[in-house]
Write a structure and sequence with these properties.
The complex is a heterodimer of chains A (524) and B (325).
Chain A (H helix, E strand, L loop, with lengths): L1 H11 L5 E4 L2 E5 L5 H10 L3 E9 L1 H4 L1 E9 L4 E9 L5 E3 L8 H12 L2 E3 L49 E6 L11 E7 L3 E7 L7 H7 L5 H6 L6 H16 L5 H29 L3 H22 L8 E2 L2 E2 L5 H26 L2 H7 L7 H7 L3 H6 L6 H4 L20 H24 L19 E7 L4 E8 L5 E7 L1 H12 L8 H8 L3 H5 L1
Parallel strand pairs in A: 2-5, 6-7
Antiparallel strand pairs in A: 1-2, 3-4, 4-5, 8-9, 9-10, 11-12, 13-14, 14-15
Helix pairs in contact in A: 7-8, 8-9, 8-15, 8-17, 9-10, 10-15, 15-17
Chain B lengths: L1 H4 L9 H33 L9 H11 L10 H18 L17 H21 L3 H32 L4 H11 L5 H17 L18 H4 L5 H26 L10 H28 L8 H19 L2
Helix pairs in contact in B: 2-10, 2-11, 3-10, 4-5, 4-10, 5-6, 6-7, 6-8, 6-12, 8-10, 8-12, 10-11
The chains are: A alpha+beta (524), B mainly alpha (325).
């Protein structure tokens, strides 16, 4: 494995690169070197997967981490630097790498560290009435303290509207229907949208801070509830991190069952999303057919695993569920029927002229824009970016299964719909392989009593929406010191902001639905 | 062809009796209009393998809304309050000009096609103006969209009606119906084209897919619903009720202008029963057609709606032109 380390070290031009464990590398650099190393990494084809800070206590101060993902050789490289208490600032790379934009501002909001040279140093996560000088993720901030709110302390600057007949249309944060809160500010000239400004973080729950207060075994339940529709994805990412941290090998049977769970989650979400896209263009018949298929899936999930949305199925060290031969066959039969009905559904949609007219060329996110913004998952693959951690850095049983990664070039609503439709096909094939080849043996490995002290590990999972990353760090006593959660939505929301301008206002809902991003996962 | 021949020309009524008759007709249509929407909802639900709301849900909703207190924005002026009332009043007045069960309309001497179109335009105009009154962005957006669609739907409606008027040589809706009833449906291409044009107008005026989506909760995609988003309680009840009445009115126009089968010549209970049953059947048939269109189409991109309305307009023109061949 040192070969991979040497290749990456050479590409990044680093004197040292530690290999923490297979596929995970780290190097400390001087603060002022960060932008140069970023240039090297980006030049070598690595992409910024996440960016975060840690507070390592009064003695060591804070640290800033860039996490880069390399495809060949596969691996995650964490470049980090100390940020001493007497100089709470770090060089920004956002001007050159827009993917860092929200990440760096979030570090500013929650750690009080200033990104120097950032083109927009306004708050991203904290809202207007949060007082200055209360960085919530610093260790000195006690989460039970009462923070004195200051109304109007830091009013959010909305882009001014200029020109004759140009208006702002504010939408949200409270929406009709069962939708999470988020504020959208449109600049419109009649119906065409000139720009879209997002205001999120209405459902910030302090989850990352909460992880630090919980026993690490309980963290799994917290991970499951980061985004309700990605319970398995986040649970797996957290479990992977803890398992890598403790060096526990998950039994083969558990890896296969986890794959089954993750693909079922992908399946029910993709089917529901395709129906939701039809709903948003008032194509009611296929929409209700999709709902029937989705309901069939979550109902059988409840029967087989005890939870409609698969909560409580993943365990640290394995899975908490079993599949007997009879139930396995029941699932296979159900999936066969679903496959046939799903094909009919897709045909019904793409054979309808009025439907394709609504989705073709609507909400285009270009390949370059998607790459610059660090968009991941379905949205990335619909914009021509061939990214999928299941193939690129396989977790669970994916290395032993055959599947393709569908990529579409269009970047429009139709492309995102087709990526989903083709992924459903692949998921069905993966599920068939995993269920038919389900190995015998234990489905669980007990974990040690304690986490290793002063250590860190990354866990990842390619969930249905995109990659979920959990980076877990422990302190000198083996307690959780920091968990950085990166939900795919955090990187994809700016992609939505980019895809909407140039379209007409009534098309926004269907564009939004084709991304279907999580507010809860984004805001955490 | 006996069904066509027993229709006699209407005997002029006194103004007071005409007016009473008109009110009665409006009341009957007001009473059944929510049922029509319920029937369409039920049929749409069947297409979606759903059960759908009860047939009478429209009445429950109206009863609920009428009991509530109206919530109005502090910035709303009298225009906002007047909007739903004028909209409702114009819809009711328009009903009196249209023959429903009889071979004549209660107030047909008061005006014909032009008054009908004018009344409907007045109602729409008032509601659009009222939608701007509170300054909420959705209201103005909906109002502007409604007027965009109406600017094309109105001429199409007039062309379609004029084509029929040319056959009758009159602008009076009673004359139109009586002429068609006497000679029977000709099957002439101009009549078919005019009927097609008016069917598209019906979809637009009733806010149906592919023009608008009556079932959506997405404010940004709405046309009619966005325009009336600010209304609550009895104000909203008036808007909803008048919209349902308008939809029934357009269907009545379509069935009675092009298929005036079995209209009652007198107030004899037997004749009214026959006429009522046939009318219900014809409107139901049209409701099935609307359901089919709504279930097999996605809503058009808003900028494509003018193309559909232009199609309706084109059909209307063609109908008129063919009439002279």
């Amino acid at each position: 494995m040192t070969a991979a380390r040497d290749v990456l070290r050479g590409r990044l031009g680093l004197p040292e690169l530690a290999e923490l464990r297979p596929g995970e590398f780290a190097a400390e650099v001087k603060r002022e070197q960060l932008p140069a190393v970023a240039d090297q990494a980006a030049g070598a084809g690595l992409r910024l997967a996440t960016l975060f800070a840690t507070d390592d206590g009064p003695a060591k101060g804070c640290a800033l981490h860039h996490l880069w993902a390399a495809r060949e050789p596969p691996g995650f490289v964490r470049i980090w630097t100390r940020v001493p208490a007497d100089s709470p600032r770090f060089p920004s790379i956002a001007a050159k790498y827009p993917v860092a934009n929200w990440f760096e501002r979030e570090v500013m909001d929650y750690f009080g560290l200033v990104p120097e040279g950032h083109p927009n140093t306004f708050r991203v996560a904290l809202h207007d009435d949060w007082p200055d000088g209360f960085p919530a993720l610093r260790k000195a901030f006690a989460d039970e303290q009462k923070v004195p709110r200051v109304p109007g302390n830091n009013p959010h600057p909305f882009r001014p509207v200029l020109g004759e007949g140009v208006f702002q249309v504010p939408v949200g944060p409270v929406h009709a229907g069962i939708i999470e809160p988020g504020h959208f500010r449109f600049g419109v000239a009649g119906e065409p949208v000139l720009y879209l400004q997002l205001r999120l973080f209405y459902v910030h729950k302090g989850i990352e801070k909460r992880f630090e207060k919980l026993p690490w075994r309980h963290g799994l339940f917290l991970a499951e509830s980061i985004s309700g529709d990605t319970a398995v994805g986040h649970a797996l990412a957290y479990a992977h991190a803890v398992e890598r941290l403790t060096g526990v090998e998950v039994p083969r049977r558990a890896r296969y069952l986890r794959t089954v769970l993750l693909e079922l989650e992908r399946l029910y979400n993709h089917v529901a999303d395709i129906g939701a896209i039809a709903t948003d263009v008032a194509f009611a018949v296929p929409a209700s057919r999709a709902q029937v298929l989705r309901e069939g899936l979550v109902a059988i999930q409840e029967r087989l695993f005890g939870a409609r949305l698969l909560r409580g199925t993943v365990a640290l060290g394995g899975v908490k569920c079993e599949l007997t031969l009879g139930r396995r066959n029941e699932l296979l039969v159900h999936l066969d029927r679903l496959g046939r009905e799903f094909d009919d559904l897709v045909k019904l949609l793409i054979d309808s002229g009025t439907f394709t007219d609504r989705v073709d060329g609507t909400g285009v996110l270009g390949t370059q824009a998607a790459r610059d913004l660090g968009v991941v998952g379905i949205a990335a693959r619909a914009s021509g970016l061939d990214l999928d951690l299941r193939r690129d850095q396989p977790h669970d049983a994916y290395a032993s299964l055959r599947f393709q990664v569908p990529v579409e070039e269009g970047g429009d609503v139709r492309a995102r719909l087709m990526v989903r439709a083709r992924e459903v096909e692949q998921s069905l094939s993966i599920l068939r392989q995993a269920l038919e080849g389900l190995p015998e043996g234990p489905s669980f490995t007990p974990l040690p009593d304690a986490l290793p002290a002063s250590s860190s590990a990354l866990g990842w999972a390619e969930a249905w929406r995109g990659e979920c990353l959990h980076w877990v760090q422990t302190d000198e006593e083996g307690r959780v010191a920091r968990v950085k959660v990166t939900d795919p939505s955090f990187k994809n929301w700016p992609g939505l902001g980019r895809a909407v301008p140039g379209n007409i206002l009534p098309d926004f809902p269907v564009i939004n639905k084709s991304f279907n991003l999580s507010y809860s996962g984004n805001d955490r | 062809m006996s069904g066509w021949t027993h229709v006699a020309s209407s005997t002029p009524l006194s103004l007071a009796r005409s007016f009473a008759f008109g009110l009665l007709q409006a009341a009957v249509l007001l009473a059944v209009a929510p049922l029509l929407r319920g029937v369409i909802k039920k049929m749409k639900a069947a297409f979606q393998t759903r059960q759908g709301p009860p047939l009478l849900q429209g009445y429950y909703d109206l009863a609920k809304l009428l009991r509530k207190e109206p919530v109005r924005s502090e910035t709303a002026s009298w225009v906002f309050v007047a909007g739903p009332r004028i909209y409702f009043a114009t819809a009711v007045a328009a009903t009196m000009l249209v023959p429903v069960l009889f071979a004549g309309a209660p107030l047909e001497q008061a005006g014909g096609i032009l008054v009908l179109v004018g009344l409907l335009a007045l109602g729409r105009f008032t509601l659009a103006i009222a939608s701007l009154d509170t300054g909420s962005p959705f209201g103005g957006m909906g109002g502007s969209r409604e007027m965009t669609v109406a600017a094309l739907a109105e001429p199409a409606l007039m062309l379609g009606l004029f084509t029929v008027a040319l056959w009758a040589g009159s602008l009076n809706l009673g004359d139109l119906v009586r002429t068609t009833a006497q000679r029977g449906p000709s099957g002439h291409p101009s009549e078919l084209l005019a009927a097609a044009a008016l069917f598209i107008v019906l979809l637009a005026e009733a806010g149906r897919v592919p023009v608008d989506n009556p079932a959506t909760h997405l404010e940004l995609t709405m046309i009619h619903e966005a325009m009336v988003l600010e209304y609550a309680g009895p104000d909203l009840a008036l808007v909803e009720w008048a919209s349902a009445l308008k939809e029934l009115l357009f269907m009545t126009l379509l069935v009675n202008l092009f298929l005036p089968l079995g209209l009652a010549a007198s107030a004899a209970p037997g004749a009214i029963a026959v006429s009522g049953a046939l009318y219900a059947g014809k409107v139901f048939f049209l409701a099935v057609a609307v359901t089919l269109v709504e279930s097999t189409n996605a809503k058009l991109r808003f900028f494509r709606v003018p193309e559909l309305m232009a199609l309706s307009l084109g059909l209307g023109f063609l109908a008129l032109a063919i009439r002279f061949l």
